[in-house]
Amino acid sequence: ENMLTPFDMIGEETLHRLVDAFYHRVGQHPDLTPIFPNDLTETARKQKQFLTQYLGGPTLYTNEHGHPMMRARHLPFEITETRAKAWLGCMREAMDEVGLSGPIRDEFYARLVLTAQHMINTDENAK
Ligand code: HEM
To answer: Over 80: is that where the pLDDT of 2 sits?
Structure first.
């Protein structure tokens, strides 16, 4: 009812700075650039919508794109354990850059670890 969501606690401005800092790193990471578009503007816009909703804020992603189905939307890309670790590393560095710290950071990050593990769809050792 009057509960603050993680989105309220982090704030839209910090969340947007986080996503921008994150994709700046993704765009330079040798494990990630092969599967991401060169221009990450639209990717960042969608991620701001998605994370707003993921953190309990307004359902911006679903309003524009429908059910998130994140694992299904990632199936066109080879997501290995190495790439999941790289993704999470970019996110930790971005959290450091924007000064996101304390329990809110730890809980957000722990959830992202689970979601990232769920996105893995390719066994790199089998290749
Ligand atoms: C889209 C990679 C984890 C949320 C994408 C795209 C790639 C990608 C290549 C397509 C970018 C584009 O064409 O615009 C990865 C990799 C991950 C990962 C390597 C490592 C595990 C995650 C996680 C989340 C997430 C943990 C959410 C917490 C999204 C969203 C989009 C996206 C919201 C945009 C979907 C859309 O097009 O509507 N990701 N991702 N990803 N990813 Fe991930």
So the answer is: no
